[in-house]
Amino acid sequence: MKAFFEGIQWLFENIFFALHNFLKELELTHWFAANTINWIFMIICAVAMVYWIKQLKLHEEEGQEKQDTTAHSFLGK
What is the pTM for the complete model shown? Predict the structure, then answer.
């Protein structure tokens, strides 16, 4: 039974966390390179937020936005 759990330990430490361990070591020498994936996600989120706000403005200008309380059934009660 001990070998089974040691096998699970080996799997997680050497296979599943290999990228995490690589980034942990990389951060000590190249901070920007280690955080590249974070920068990519922040850029994607910023672009998505700008797109979302532009779409909200476009729908509001066209009058397609429902502003009354009956737009949602749970608000009208």
Answer: 0.57
